[in-house]
Amino acid sequence: MKTSSPMKWFVSREGLYYLGLAALLVVILPLILDPFRLNMVGKYLTYAFVAIGLVMCWGKAGILSLGQGVFFGLGGYCMAMFLKLEASTPEATAIQSTPGIPDFMDWNQLTELPWFWEPFHSFSFTLLAVIGVPVLLAFVIGLAMFTRRVGGVYFAIITQAIAAVLTILIIGQQGFTGGVNGITDLQTLKGWDIRTDEARNILYFVCVGMLFLVLFVARFVQNSKLGRILVAMNAQETRVRFSGYDVAAFKIFVFCLAAAFAGVGGAMFTLIVGFMSPSFIGIVGSIEMVIFCALGGRLSILGAVYGALLVNAAKSGFSESFPELWPFAMGALFIGVVLAFPNGMAGLYQTYVMPLEDKIFKRKKVEAVAAAEPEATKPVAKKTDDYDPMIDSYSPEKS
Amino acid sequence: MFDGYTSSELMSIFAMQGFAGLSLFSVFVLMALGLTIIFGQMGVINMAHGEFMILGAYTTYLTSGFFQSYLPGLFGGYFFVAMILAFLVCAALGALVEWLMIRHLYHRPLDTLLATWGLSLIMQQAYRSIFGAREVGVELPEWMLGAFQVTDLVELPINGLFVMIIALSIAVGLYLLMYRSGYGKKVRAVVQNRPMAEAVGINSAGIDRATFALGCGIAGVAGAAFTMIGSTGPSSGQAYIVDTFLVVVFGGAQSLIGTIVSAFGISQAQSTMEFFLSGSMAKVLTLLFVIGILMLRPEGLMALKVRR
Questions:
Q1: Residue A255 falls within a domain, yes or no?
Q2: Across the strands, what pairs with A183?
Q3: pTM over 0.80
């Protein structure tokens, strides 16, 4: 897929989809929502980071990780540790028996800062750790699993067990991690109060910006040769291996990429919500992240964003008015998406809306061809420029 | 971590924790047996397995209530009726689920995982709406109360022992069914080579349905047994599900002996370490250990050799 100039890309069909999402997130939602709701949308968007990672990892490469919450949590905890240290100055914590350490450590009779908290005094280290820690863990897991050719259901179960381990560890070691309450009472980022409405608005836009950055990285990978290999690997792993590609290396890469996205999402989550707790990252949380991706369309990175927004909005809506109905709806969503719409909303969009668009676009294209002469003389070649969220029709996974 | 204990003290600690771990072992075996035959047969991970177990537990709860009000004379034997009912209810629901859902997803094992997770959410919420969020317990018949005094340090509660006997007899029964019956022969044929099994006239779809129902039925019996040693709440099943998956995967899918060995190993390791470390650290270490072994030996302890 080659775009001759950035301007042309923006008026292409794919560009319009991105512009549509940008218009929704940057213009429409901030205009119609009050700051509280906008903050909630920001929270949903942080899950979209994970969902985009899952599209790359699960949709494209066929690696289902039920432990994405681990990476989300690690990113979030890294950020939360920095903010907590900033909030725990010796002056602010003067009433503690050991001033200068986070309050929950003092409650748990710790008298000095644990060694692994020390580097989080530095903001640049924190930024590095938000991506570095999840990627490092993903790399270790990936190296151990994929080089031994563990995949499919086994990989899913093991990642789920890792999510369980991390949650138990965080809850159990409450002196070091804040336990089941998590790291709460975060106040400022480099002296800037993150709790005001204004700060929350700014953080929302930062989050949208980061989201688009991640979307473009994902898009770049998906459209590169690497992306094609990932898809090929999903469909015919053995054939790709026999063609001379190191399948394990590609899998490790895409798993690390998904972990990096999730880590960024987690850090944004901490900033936007103002605390981090183990309840967001356990088994249940991690598997819910898969449904964001599945509902949006497991092969579409834009779909993942809409999926995360919709599921979370529905969850808040249901929980406010009919809390007892939400699990039914969620369960039905899991079953329905898997049974009836394996390609999610993006698949439906492609089947039902795109043909309509084609009709409209065709008319426009004639004008475009007339305007942008010599290059667009071949309508057949032009066709490949059209954005195809599916890239590949759904291919059943091998057992 | 062994500092400050004499060797004889250590021995009794190990014995004591070992016996304490046996009740965890029984729960693992009961849950894992159903899971392992479903996973071994169809490569399907049934995330709703814990909820099937809880369905069995609620069936037992209702049966005990029924016996208390209408047949108080027969109360001592209600458990056996409950066990059969639990099996039938869960197997019927299992067959229904297989027909409605699972059979459409055989070629997409990862999708079954998600679909059954959805099912588990629905079932949990259904329990919460019907039976309430509080945990319920059954009244044990008199003969199940009390304990055997083995040595002066070690005593075995009869209900725990009873559950273990049930677990082991189901394991033996399952072994006989799988390795000494015509049905078992067909199941193993389908596991080893589905197209060839179909070619010689085995109805593999029927075998799948029967196996899924059987696995769910065993989960129901597990639930019935579970009521004897603990109370039942809507989300009790979920508490064990990850450990049980690890038991199954660690033991090597499709291997009954492997499942039992791994259930024993994991429950004993966890129970013994719990004495020396906190409960959460014991669990973390056990899980990490299992994950580590699985990285070295992904096919599990005792894997069936199958050509793929």
A1: yes
A2: A276
A3: yes
